[in-house]
Queue: 2 jobs
Job 1
Amino acid sequence: MNLAVTDGASKKVRLHRGRGRASAEWNVVGADLEGRPTPAEFEVNATSLDSYFADGNFDFAKLDVQGAEASVLRRMRRLLSESRPILAIEFHTETGWAGRHDLLDAGYELRTPGGVPIDAGPGAQRVYHCLARPL
Amino acid sequence: MTTGELRGPQTSAWTRRLSRPAGPVSLGTPSLRVDDNNAFWVREDVLGDLPGARVGEGYAVSRFRESRDESHAPSYVRDQRARLAIIRNMPLWDVEAERSVTISEKFGALGDRYDPRAMRTILASLLQRDRSYEPELQASVSAVVRGGWTCADVGAHHGVFTRLLADLVGESGHVVAFEAILGMLVGCVGHSRPAVVQGSPS
């Protein structure tokens, strides 16, 4: 079964190319990584983490969702507040980077993979690789 | 999701069908051509001096990233055994028996080549290659994740982190990998650790 993880608002999502014709980096945001719109190529089933793990939880997650970070984080608020998993996140775009506010609101701190604290407040510059831990 | 339909004849079956009653000669798949991966058939009466090829000869394994999964999404799988693993349970139309069969039913011998030992060899080469991918992030993940944990790999792509997480959590842990393009994750099939492969985003 193939599943796209998004905000769970729709049962199906369309996948778009993220980086040119030969790219293996498909996304659900409808644009390439430079923000240029790309056509939808095919449709897959979608879920959110809160609904997929409705009866469970996890300790750790790696998120590499090609710009859909904010959508995925928005619909894992229950997990963030109840399971308190540690997350490793790739923030691919500025839109995705906006999703860090859900982490801050849930009492998380962001660090680089090397452990250096990241200023993630309003207007903060995007950091590609982040480790998010509950405080 | 509805099961996708892949269309494409097996070259030998097509040749036998074309060859009835007095059919064309297969020239096979031209392995030296890199601009396409087509097979050509030429009628014997116009073959002239062109070398022909018998059924079973002249085929070349595709070197292109054109593999598709069951939803017709690109899987980017190149390895022949991994390709077979993806399609082995898909329905095939047997043009000679005129009935629907599966790859593993029809080509049991081919299916057998996809054995656990072969898979371990593939996995070993994948793990070797994995180490060079985002090493700093891998190091920090390795420092954080403990045995027995449940982990989610959301946007697992080729499964580099799925395999790393599966090794870190060990036999008592769980890894759920999400990947919208499931063919990407074929390298996680048969992994000795509990990697539950479900599909994901991108």
Job 2
Amino acid sequence: MAHHVLVPPLTEEQVRALHVDDTVTLQHRLFGIRDATQIALFDRGRTTRLDLRGHAVIHTAPNVKRMPVAADHPTGYAPVCIGTTTSMRMERFTQPLMSALGVRLIIGKGGLGAQSLAAFGTLGGAYLAIVGGTAALETTWIEAIEDVDLDDLNPESLWQFRIRDFGPLRVAMDSHGGSLYADVDTAARSQRAAALAALGVR
Amino acid sequence: MTLRIEPDRLVEVARELYIRALKKLPPDIKQGFADLVRRETRAGARDVLDVMVRNIAVAESTDNLLCQDTGLPIYNVTIGRGVAVDGVALKAALREGCARATREHPLRSSVVHPLTRRNEHTSCGPGIPVIHIDFSDAFEGLRIEMIPKGSGSENNSWLKMAIPAEGSDAIKRFVIDCVLDAGGKTCPPTIVGVGVGGTADLCVHLAKRAATRPLGTVSDDVEGARLEAELSKAVNLLGVGPQGLGGDATAFAVHVELAATHITMNPVAVNMQCHSARRASALITDTGIAYGY
């Protein structure tokens, strides 16, 4: 259970050094991505000018405020409240996110499934669990919105955040086939009979 | 004496309620966290609960939203005794207040047309905000409850048209299986809302009412109360835990709301509320507006 401070862009080797139950604090840069962003990129053939190679993405669509363009708000947006959405809806996008855009880490809540776990193993990636529903805290780890692309999809644009001390996050799926979600699901299903017995269900 | 409520006042109340609900968690939910932390036996799960509790404090100290998901806005209006209000104007005022909160705070509009996926950036759209209007002779004035319903929990909603021969065992089995299927996707610990009986649509509505009922309240029906007590214990035997990462604290509680049903029917619905179980209310009387939860 090691702690890693990571400053993307990351190499495959750095990501493969992560194991389930390790913790990670991320520095410098993070990209925000969501359902509509990935539908646009992978189903509708749109492209982005932003370079995600070796980077981490977070499943999010932020609350933002329009501001005059300035050093602190180069995009004309200031963060209001930035948190994390349920990852599982975006399960089928993990593989293209990694193979086509070179993403190495996905931050989300609730976990991803077997396809993503396979992609992490084959391509060298990991899933970092954040505590969902704690956006007020998460927002304090975000310094600025550095860039934005595909902004016609707002709030599901492709966001580039400048971050500081983002975490600690928990490695919940790794490149070695480990998944806390699969482990918990198996254990919980093994308790099903006991729960039904407690309810007097025959 | 009749209290006349002007629509302009309601616009302001609807605006204020949306923002309040997003920022401050009700005391019963805070107490629910304290109870779960005390009972949790796994250290990892306690850490996750601690982050959630810390977030509640950060939201209050930074005057920020608890969660980025501004949800689907729901307004539950109860018209008490001695009130005169124009119903059509009331609905228009709630819509306007919802849109104003979104533009003026500003809030992320999480609402899109279901086919075009177009976002008007007002948190409004066809049929949204959801507005329910009911009547009560229990109090004087007009009460509005606002619930921003997050999608992580709402996406985990189920209806089963079980049959009488399956009995209440079908209801219990269904609830357990829904909690297992939801896993961490609903942002547990949740309030598991169970609707029992009614028509198909009423059953789902009852589940929503159950999921958004304050913690500590019990079903009005004796059998319903018994069922929710049993289910509350049982779901926390599963070990799904906070965020689906394992632990005792899978749910704050299971709530049951029921209605009579047809002799041939045995419907059960499940709707969940995430740990950011947000709601705010306002009571409008002749002495003014009192905000609460």
